[in-house]
Protein backbone atom coordinates (compact mmCIF):
# COMPACT_ATOMS: atom_id res chain seq x y z
CA UNK A 1 0.00 0.00 0.00
CA UNK A 2 1.51 3.33 -0.96
CA UNK A 3 1.43 6.36 1.33
CA UNK A 4 -1.39 8.07 -0.62
CA UNK A 5 -3.72 5.09 -0.12
CA UNK A 6 -2.78 4.89 3.55
CA UNK A 7 -3.47 8.60 4.02
CA UNK A 8 -6.89 8.21 2.40
CA UNK A 9 -7.77 5.46 4.89
CA UNK A 10 -6.61 7.25 8.06
CA UNK A 11 -9.34 8.79 10.15
CA UNK A 12 -8.07 11.86 11.93
CA UNK A 13 -9.13 15.30 13.01
CA UNK A 14 -7.17 18.55 13.11
CA UNK A 15 -6.71 19.68 16.73
CA UNK A 16 -7.92 23.02 18.01
CA UNK A 17 -4.69 23.23 20.02
CA UNK A 18 -6.48 22.19 23.21
CA UNK A 19 -6.94 18.44 23.56
CA UNK A 20 -9.44 18.97 26.39
CA UNK A 21 -11.65 21.11 24.15
CA UNK A 22 -11.29 18.55 21.37
CA UNK A 23 -12.57 15.91 23.80
CA UNK A 24 -15.49 18.12 24.82
CA UNK A 25 -14.35 18.51 28.43
CA UNK A 26 -15.91 21.19 30.58
CA UNK A 27 -13.45 23.91 31.64
CA UNK A 28 -11.10 22.89 28.83
CA UNK A 29 -9.16 26.17 29.06
CA UNK A 30 -8.46 25.67 32.76
CA UNK A 31 -7.39 22.07 32.20
CA UNK A 32 -4.97 23.10 29.45
CA UNK A 33 -3.38 25.78 31.65
CA UNK A 34 -3.02 23.33 34.53
CA UNK A 35 -1.47 20.74 32.19
CA UNK A 36 1.05 23.30 30.92
CA UNK A 37 2.01 24.36 34.46
CA UNK A 38 2.33 20.75 35.63
CA UNK A 39 4.44 19.94 32.57
CA UNK A 40 6.88 22.70 33.52
CA UNK A 41 6.95 21.58 37.17
CA UNK A 42 7.64 18.01 36.05
CA UNK A 43 10.41 19.17 33.72
CA UNK A 44 12.14 21.09 36.53
CA UNK A 45 11.81 18.20 38.99
CA UNK A 46 13.28 15.81 36.43
CA UNK A 47 16.19 18.17 35.68
CA UNK A 48 16.98 18.37 39.41
CA UNK A 49 16.68 14.61 39.90
CA UNK A 50 14.50 15.00 42.98
CA UNK A 51 12.64 12.06 44.48
CA UNK A 52 8.91 12.55 44.81
CA UNK A 53 9.26 12.69 48.60
CA UNK A 54 11.86 15.49 48.45
CA UNK A 55 9.92 17.30 45.72
CA UNK A 56 6.68 17.10 47.70
CA UNK A 57 8.36 18.61 50.76
CA UNK A 58 9.87 21.39 48.64
CA UNK A 59 6.53 22.11 46.97
CA UNK A 60 4.53 21.94 50.19
CA UNK A 61 2.14 19.23 49.03
CA UNK A 62 1.69 15.61 50.14
CA UNK A 63 3.64 13.07 48.08
CA UNK A 64 0.51 11.15 46.96
CA UNK A 65 -0.97 14.42 45.65
CA UNK A 66 2.29 15.17 43.80
CA UNK A 67 2.24 11.69 42.29
CA UNK A 68 -1.35 12.19 41.09
CA UNK A 69 -0.50 15.62 39.73
CA UNK A 70 2.45 14.30 37.74
CA UNK A 71 0.15 11.64 36.24
CA UNK A 72 -2.23 14.34 34.96
CA UNK A 73 -4.79 14.27 37.75
CA UNK A 74 -5.20 17.95 38.64
CA UNK A 75 -8.43 17.71 40.65
CA UNK A 76 -8.09 19.70 43.85
CA UNK A 77 -5.13 21.73 42.60
CA UNK A 78 -5.78 25.32 41.61
CA UNK A 79 -3.78 27.26 39.06
CA UNK A 80 -2.61 29.41 41.98
CA UNK A 81 -1.21 26.37 43.82
CA UNK A 82 0.63 25.29 40.67
CA UNK A 83 2.09 28.78 40.28
CA UNK A 84 3.18 28.62 43.94
CA UNK A 85 4.94 25.32 43.15
CA UNK A 86 6.83 27.05 40.34
CA UNK A 87 7.94 29.90 42.60
CA UNK A 88 9.12 27.34 45.19
CA UNK A 89 11.21 25.89 42.36
CA UNK A 90 12.87 29.26 41.83
CA UNK A 91 10.77 30.37 38.89
CA UNK A 92 9.29 33.84 38.48
CA UNK A 93 5.64 33.78 37.47
CA UNK A 94 4.33 36.90 35.79
CA UNK A 95 0.70 37.62 34.97
CA UNK A 96 0.35 39.98 32.02
CA UNK A 97 -3.04 41.58 31.34
CA UNK A 98 -3.55 43.26 27.97
CA UNK A 99 -6.34 44.20 25.59
CA UNK A 100 -7.64 41.34 23.46
CA UNK A 101 -7.50 41.82 19.69
CA UNK A 102 -10.61 43.51 18.31
CA UNK A 103 -11.32 40.35 16.33
CA UNK A 104 -12.10 38.53 19.61
CA UNK A 105 -15.26 39.10 21.61
CA UNK A 106 -13.53 38.18 24.85
CA UNK A 107 -10.01 37.70 26.14
CA UNK A 108 -8.15 34.42 26.46
CA UNK A 109 -5.86 32.79 29.00
CA UNK A 110 -2.53 31.36 27.95
CA UNK A 111 0.76 30.24 29.46
CA UNK A 112 4.05 31.38 27.94
CA UNK A 113 7.39 30.06 29.19
CA UNK A 114 10.54 32.05 28.54
Describe this structure in words.
This protein is 51% helix and 0% strand. It is an all-alpha fold. The chain has a domain at 42-91: Orthogonal Bundle (434 Repressor (Amino-terminal Domain)), CATH 1.10.260.40. The longest helix has 21 residues, at 28-48.
List the helices and strands and how they pair.
Blueprint lengths: L2 H7 L9 H4 L5 H21 L3 H8 L3 H8 L8 H10 L26
Helix pairs in contact: 3-6, 4-5
Kindly summarize this structure in a few lines.
The chain has helices at 3-9, 19-22, 28-48, 52-59, 63-70, 79-88.
Characteristic terms for this protein:
51% helix; globular; mainly alpha; 114 residues; 0% strand; 6 helices; 434 Repressor (Amino-terminal Domain)
Derived from helix and strand composition plus strand pairing, the structural class reads: mainly alpha
Estimated radius of gyration: 18 Å
User: How many distinct helices?
Assistant: 6
Unreliable stretches (pLDDT < 50, length at least 5) are: none
Mean pLDDT: 88
Q: Please give the number of β-strands.
A: 0
What is the class of the domain at 42-91 in the CATH system? Mainly Alpha
Spatial gap, N to C terminus? 44 Å
- Portion of residues in helices? 40-55%
CATH fourth-tier homologous superfamily of the domain at 42-91? lambda repressor-like DNA-binding domains
Return the string of H and E elements. Answer: HHHHHH
Shape, per Cα inertia axes: globular
Amino acid sequence: MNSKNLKDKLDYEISSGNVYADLGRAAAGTLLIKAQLVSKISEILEERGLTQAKAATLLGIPQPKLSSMLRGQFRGLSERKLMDCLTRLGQDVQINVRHAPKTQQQGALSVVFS
